[in-house]
Amino acid sequence: MPTSVLWAVDLFGRVYTLSTAGQYWELCKDAQLEFKRVSAAMQCCWGIACDNQVYLYMCANDVPIRRREEAYENQRWNPMGGFCEKLLPSDRWQWSDVSGLQHRLLDGVALPSPHWEWESDWYVDENFGGEPTEKGGWTYAIDFPATYTRDKKWNSCVRRRKWIRYRRYKSRDTWAKIPSKDDPKELPDPFNDLSVGGWEITEEPVGRLSVWAVSLQGKVWYREDVSHSNPEGSWWSLVDTPGEVVQISCGPHDLLWATLWEGQALVREGINRNNPKGSFWSIVEPPGSENGIMHISVGVGVVWAVTKDRKVWFRRGVNSHNPCGTSWIEMVGEMVMVNVGLNDQVWGISCEDRAVYFRQGVTPSELSGKTWKAIVATRECDRSHSGSSSSLLSAGCFFGDEVRASSDSASHDTDVSSEVERRDPEQPLPKESLDNPQNPNESSALDPGASRTAECDVENACPVVGRGEPTQAPGPSGRPAELPWTNIDLKEPKKAPNHSAAGLPESTGLASLGLFTLGLEEPYGADDHLLWAWVSGGGCAVEAGSVLKWFTVQSGLSPSVQTLSLSITPAQTAAWRKQIFQQLTERTKRELENFRHYEQAVEQSVWVKTGALQWWCDWKPHKWVDVRVALEQFTGHDGARDSILFIYYVVHEEKKYLHVFLNEVTVLVPVLNEAKHSFALYTPERTRQRWPVRLAAATEQDMNDWLALLSLSCCESRRVQGRPSPQAIWSITCKGDIFVSEPSPDLEAHEHLLPCDQMFWRQMGGHLRVVEANSRGVVWGIGYDHTAWVYTGGYGGGCFQGLASSTSNIYTQSDVKSVYIYENQRWNPVTGYTSRGLPTDRYMWSDATGLQECTKAGTKPPSLQWTWVSDWYVDFSITGGTDQEGWQYASDFPASYHGYKTMKDFVRRRCWARKCKLVTSGPWLEVAPIALGDVSIIPESPEAEGHTHSIALWAVSDKGDVLCRLGVSELNPAGSSWLHVGTDQPFASVSIGACYQVWAVARDGSAFYRGSVSPSQPAGDCWYHIPPPPKQRLSQVSVGQTSVYALDENGNLWFRGGITPSYPQGSSWDHVSNNVRRVSVGPLDQVWVIANKVQGSHGLSRGTVCHRTGVQPREPKGQGWDYGIGGGWDHISVRANATKAVRSVSQEQEAHGPVCC
Q: pTM of the prediction?
């Protein structure tokens, strides 16, 4: 579960956060303001302070928030002087925006608020459509406005160029006051309530937020243009309401509810992508006529309310199609307020003790949950307080007029602890007169003129009393602690129960306890529970069934537990374990010594497992046949194990069998099939035929059991076990399964080349879309939901348990992907566009190709391991653009689609998407919090000696930002922080070579080279634009030691020629091959690809691993292809394989080494 935080405000106006992975409330870093309430999202939090002003808290991130400002310089051609600044009266402004309608001088573009800063000065954008323009960045056209080109023609009468300047949002990890540029006469009055949501509105662009607020006069306001690139928005706009509103709540999707002074609820309807403010209000009556609604909170598909009698209610039947719901259901408990967060999880603040409660048991099938459970987490600053106070208790001292011995019972300690927890924060602290004659030591140790603050560390000020002798804790400078006692009014503490003081000596006052620090500015005692006024879970993602640390009392709160823990130190525990381990080792040696001359009782053993499966028969008609299978595993004299799989089937009432030697099996791979739990067995022969042995089990558990058993048997036959080597080759199927192969030295040999169809692949646990490896053992991956993962060093996970999986470094992993279907329509002269097409047309509901019928009701998740987590929604982000309803138009099926309608468009289509989720396990840990689209790790050069520097790692975020990871090493493969590398446009792919040459591909299809990248300058200095091949748009790039390969959107593979140490950008693109889906270049300049289609002797496979043969220093493009494993592969990484083949002396003399970097 990704780490997120819960926000809350206590009664004193202080803002705290509680992490889903933590167990302490942390005070907000900027704690100078006092707040009334807050409303959180994933990366930010909005709040209303006690001055009734709105503030924004943006969480710190390695990726900066950047906004590009653009201005256009326009010129017209003059017969006398050529292009000049003199325009016609009907022309646009000389300096304007892109439309030419608004005047936009460079000096007139100002920062919107003090929270922004300029990143650079104005400069000319010399890139146009992925290709460089002539010097000066001018583009030409016949007239304003028209289609501009980068080439000047004889009829080009006007020209323009774009000026760019970036500004950066600088107020991170601090409360920034939201400025207002509105007319002073129309400024909203002070705000009373605020709510943030709408970041997942159906069809909503990613990064946009809906911020709603309620003023003291009961008016509702909406903050315009709040997005990731403009976090503080632009201005407030008034939304009319049928009455005076008290409170408002906005959900992550399109739900918006508000409460009226009269106790009714308002529901905003018509909220969608094009109208985030909605269309009209609907009124919902309260649960009862006597007590109206006081507080409301909405989520994805739920509404919770609190009435004026503090009762909690749940609204039934709420969804996007019916935002008003159907009826109210009363829930158990009395709350001051409730808040619904992500995944419809619910938090509340109790009326009785002002504690935060979490609603347990909330699942998609049971949205109302089961019970309330109090969050007992303490403050982060209480760690030292609780540790010191419990040390005092365990030593027999308590802040009072009695001292208890350390031999007191555990029940006595519990009574004291509970007494501390029950103390009211406003109750005066215990006091004792400073004139007490029993305190001579104190008066001599204190400086009456001391003015230091009282917020000292308790551990430095409160000593542990031993043997009844008072001791004093030294201050920071070694002197006794100085405390301003003169201004403290101490009262007589309450007497402890008589039974707890029986047999104890009389107290000698505070002198017997040493010095005790009192936090004069701290509203709570060390063991007091926090009193809350507001809670917000809008940025807190709690998965159903996840384990949280919020509900357990920490050891520092229990004196009895603290006393026990103090009796044994960690050093003593380590020594004790080491001693036992040594004794067991010596005992084992003694017992085995007496039997070493005996022979083994059993020289050979046979083990058999049988079962019933289904087999996809080899002959026509191909169909699933019920078969019996038997796995026989035998152990030889030398201890080696081998296995044979028998498949028994019946043909024309004749029993036959098929057998497979598992030492010949090259891979066992689950098959992507929504109806069957099937998997395939490949051997070198069947790999060449493109016809594997396919088996299917009745249940998912049966398939996992067989898959794990067969995989373990294959690994034992080949004596492959444990974690993969640092040189391993990694690959991923289109299903997301991860495979590794240990490379042979002959794999990259020029003579006696090992065919890659004989490579053995074994599956690793987890689920990824992209994987990237390095020969120093650092492996990163990216999921379908753009989450970054780092390899932990384990193996197995998922369906591999027991001997097939490591006992450590296996963690839970989840992934989310979208399933797409298309709605197709044809134009009818009478009725317009309809779902009735021609007989030759594609299905009206189909996949992207139109060959498969796919309806909303009939479309299932990719496999039975996936579950739906959203409803169907229109996807507006598909290539080509869409109109406001998501339609794309074309002249016919299939054709080139565009997002606007013309007179020649007779067909249209619309893409629908639905999200599904998979939960598995594997040796992967999440790297938060930035979502990535691509990642590249430097391939270690074979000639590199020593590894004194960190490992270079570059990545592209899902938003197109280029990042450089710092602090990556073998011991810390996740690294420490991200370094943002500035770009003028969003990027799609990045790759770093063995000599620190960094290449990247922008989303417009052009390539870029990053100059001056080195270990001392990991981010380089500037980008050099590289034009793509003619009439092609690049999509991926991969850099080896000296070679640079790129892939375009049409599946063509290109080699960058002319690269030299003095000119690393190269000079030209050379075409190598087509039919390529993915390319990976290794540290030896070896080239591996995923081919789109490969024909075998029995069948065709899509997604095949292929190896480029004949790659030599004199022939860097290679000569041919060697086809390996195939049938559903989607990604490969050979960037960790630096294993060289053994070369003869003659070959060494003839070969020429690679170009020196």
A: 0.75
